Amino acid sequence: MKNGIYMLCGGEGVFAQDLLNSFIITDDQGTVIVIDGGHAQNLPPFLKRLKEITGKEVPRINAWILTHPHDDHIECFTELMKTQPDAVVVDKLYYNFQYTGEEFIKEMGGHSRVMFDMMRDFYVDLISFKGEIVIPELYDKFAVGEFNFEVLHTAKVPTGAFDCNNKSLVLKMSFSGKTVMLLADAGVPSGNKILETFPAE
């Protein structure tokens, strides 16, 4: 493998033009990191691309990071756990979701039942996950291979906005003298909070 950041499209047919927050990040030492992944229907092209990049029939993912529980971010992972849990080896899963129960329904309103169902399915399908679960908190720093991460925002940071996008996990990733901001779907409220919390960044 080589040092690379691969942004994946939705796949084939009607999904071919979909641009997702779906990334595979690699280095020449064999480290593999996945960010989100897409919808359930994106799983086949995701697995195909992952095998192409790694050259392995059963790829190892050192870290899979889920930024927030919208379907176009978590369903690829949940579909994998539900239907093909042995298709890959995932060492660690990183996520920090704010709600795990009926309090989600009370606070979010509108489409909250759909969101609650997605999160319920996530926790049910998570039973099939065999790796380590990590809940990153604000200011945390962690390394995956030679990649260094700093947590700039989580779902627990108060922003005054209650939509799921502004609860995104936002990370700063550094590697080989370069820095990448992984913003997920963070909007203006969470962006302003990050600037307030990290004014020198």
Descriptive notes:
By secondary structure, the chain is of the alpha/beta class. Helices cover about 25% and strands about 30% of the residues. The chain contains 5 helices and 10 strands. The chain has helices at about 45-55, 70-85, 105-110, 110-125, 190-195, and strands spanning about 5-10, 20-25, 30-35, 60-65, 90-95, 130-135, 140-145, 145-155, 170-175, 180. The strands form 2 sheets. Strands 1-2-3-4-5-6 form a 6-stranded mixed sheet. Strands 7-8-9-10 form a 4-stranded antiparallel sheet. A hairpin with a 2-residue loop joins strand 9 (about 170-175) and strand 10. Helix 2 (about 70-85) packs parallel to helix 4. The longest helix is centred in the middle third of the chain and has 14 residues, at about 110-125. The radius of gyration is 16 Å and the shape is globular.
Fill in the keyword field for this structure.
alpha/beta, 5 helices, 6-stranded mixed β-sheet, 10 strands, 201 residues, globular, 4-stranded antiparallel β-sheet
Describe what is shown at a glance.
The chain is of the alpha/beta class. It is 27% helix and 28% strand.
Helices and strands in order, then pairings?
Layout: E1 4-9, E2 19-26, E3 32-36, H1 43-54, E4 60-65, H2 71-83, E5 89-94, H3 103-108, H4 112-125, E6 132-134, E7 141-144, E8 147-153, E9 170-175, E10 178-182, H5 188-197
Parallel strand pairs: 3-4, 4-5, 5-6
Antiparallel strand pairs: 1-2, 2-3, 7-8, 8-9, 9-10
Helix pairs in contact: 2-4
